[in-house]
Specification:
The longest helix is centred in the middle third of the chain and has 21 residues. The N and C termini lie far apart (45 Å). The strands form two sheets. A four-stranded antiparallel beta sheet has the order 4-5-6-7, with helices on one face. Strands 1-2-3 form a three-stranded antiparallel beta sheet, with helices on one face. 34% of the residues lie in helices and 32% in strands.
Length: 180
């Protein structure tokens, strides 16, 4: 009997740790789970819908801007894996191109006079988890947002650095860099 209690305790510990790593999505049974992503990550997207008309850094509350960037970043990743070309096109600045390969992997390309960046996205695989980590307002008034992306079959999370700039009063993605 004692041995079974140890097994039960170990299983509960593993479930609790997994729940913690998923941001509470495992045991949060009351929330609706959309597209196979934890409920806590789906809650972020509603903030982005409410704030999508954000104008400029100067007039906005820093916390609201942070919530907006977090929501947009996670929504961008989910949209890329859903292959929602229309939503992605709406999120990108005019100079940025979105390309999809035949194997369904994709990338965005930003080319300027002094800079050419292509950010590869492993959208040919299944998205397991996306989590916003941090964002920073750069000296050139752009915003860099970091998100952790877990894809099926990969041991390590990828970190995607999504770069935003204010274009005609709206924050648009113009560049993506990623690393493992």
């Amino acid at each position: 009997m004692k041995r079974y209690l140890y097994y039960l305790t170990t299983i509960l510990l593993v479930f609790s740790l997994t729940d913690y790593c998923l941001g509470g999505g495992l045991f949060n049974l009351s929330s609706h789970v959309h597209d196979g992503i934890s409920a806590s990550m789906n809650g972020v997207s509603t903030i982005g819908d409410q704030s999508s008309e954000l104008r400029k850094i100067e007039g906005d509350d820093a916390a609201e801007l942070g919530r907006f960037i977090a929501a947009e970043s996670c929504d961008f990743v989910r949209s890329a894996f859903r292959r929602d070309r229309e939503r992605i096109a709406d999120m990108l600045s005019g100079e940025t191109e979105y390309m999809v390969f035949k194997d369904n992997s994709s990338y965005i390309r930003y080319a300027a006079e002094d800079l050419h960046v292509e950010g590869y996205m492993a959208t040919d695989k299944k998205l397991v988890m996306v989590r916003h980590c941090w964002h920073v307002i750069e000296k050139d008034d752009t915003i860099t947002s970091a998100v952790e992306v877990a894809v099926e079959g990969e041991k390590e999370c990828q970190t995607w650095y999504i770069h935003y700039r204010n274009s005609s009063g709206k924050w648009k993605i113009f560049m993506l860099e990623n690393g493992v």
